[in-house]
């Protein structure tokens, strides 16, 4: 499907948003990006963990 083939309609009128709401949304975005970055680094660290350590952790959970 070629996007260029889709006719474009008019954009609907948007709502007026206060600068306070925009700042609140920006703050939420920063918090969420920080959380994403932390989770990515955690995954990277877990991938680097030696297999023997992961196996030890699995065995400890079974007991």
What is the fold's blueprint, element by element?
Blueprint: H1 19-48, H2 51-62
Tell me the helix content.
Answer: 55-70%
For the CA atoms, what is the radius of gyration? 23 Å
Order of helices and strands: HH
Shape: elongated
**How many strands?**
0
Q: What is the typical, i.e. mean, pLDDT?
A: 83
In whole angstroms, the N-to-C terminal distance is 55 Å
Structural class: mainly alpha
Largest sheet, strands/sense/barrel: none
> How many helices in DSSP terms?
2
**Uncertain segments:** none
List keywords for this structure.
single chain; 63 residues; 67% helix; mainly alpha
Overview of the structural elements:
- With 63 residues, the protein is mainly α.
- Helices cover 67% and strands 0% of the residues.
- The longest helix is centred in the middle third of the chain and has 30 residues, at 19-48.
At a glance:
The chain has 63 residues and is mainly α. It contains 2 helices and no strands. The mean pLDDT is 83.
């Amino acid at each position: 499907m070629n996007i260029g083939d889709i006719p474009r309609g008019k954009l609907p009128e948007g709502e007026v948003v206060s600068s306070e709401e925009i700042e609140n949304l920006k703050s939420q975005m920063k918090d969420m990006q920080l959380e994403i970055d932390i989770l990515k680094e955690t995954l990277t660290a877990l991938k680097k963990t030696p297999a023997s350590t992961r196996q030890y952790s699995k065995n400890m959970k079974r007991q």
